[in-house]
């Protein structure tokens, strides 16, 4: 069954903002965004996906990974695209699992260092950090309207993502 809108539960943050970084795999032409939670070993439990993006979650419904196989040459370019400057920390849990949803619009800035996955046309009431470099826009009814990823790095053969993960894990010790 197709989910029209992605529902979330929002509560006060339980700790620091998770670490996150977007990587564009040049050889595969795929966007990846891993999320690392301090003092927590993320394990895949479920997903929500469309033809253009997959959101992966742990057992508690926390986002742990985003993947989009859409080559960036197919992302919609918008010169005036700027991610929200102000966002609040929050503990965001996704409520639907293993359901397909309509493909979001994929929009980027000219440098392709900022990408917007636009899930709905309505207005957003709040901006919340899902992780560093990752902001969710949520409407007044707690539905996901957009996800912004910024400071995206080009990556060859997965080297940068592996280096980033090693650095994050060293900081957690």
Characterize the structure shown.
- This protein is mostly beta strands.
- The protein has one domain.
- Helix content is 8%, strand content 40%.
- Strands 2, 3, 4, 5, 6, 7, 11 and 17 form an 8-stranded mixed beta sheet that branches. It has a 7-stranded mixed beta sheet with strand order 8-12-13-16-15-14-9, with no helix packed on it.
- The N and C termini lie far apart (42 Å).
- The model has no long low-confidence stretch (mean pLDDT 92).
Could you name the ranges where pLDDT drops below 50 across 5 or more consecutive residues? none
The total count of helices amounts to 1
Largest sheet: 8 strands, mixed
Count all strands and give the number. 17
Termini gap: 42 Å
H-E order: EEEEEEEEEEEEEEEEEH
The total tally of domains equals 1
How would you summarize what this structure contains?
This protein has 173 residues and is mainly beta. Helix content is 8%, strand content 40%.
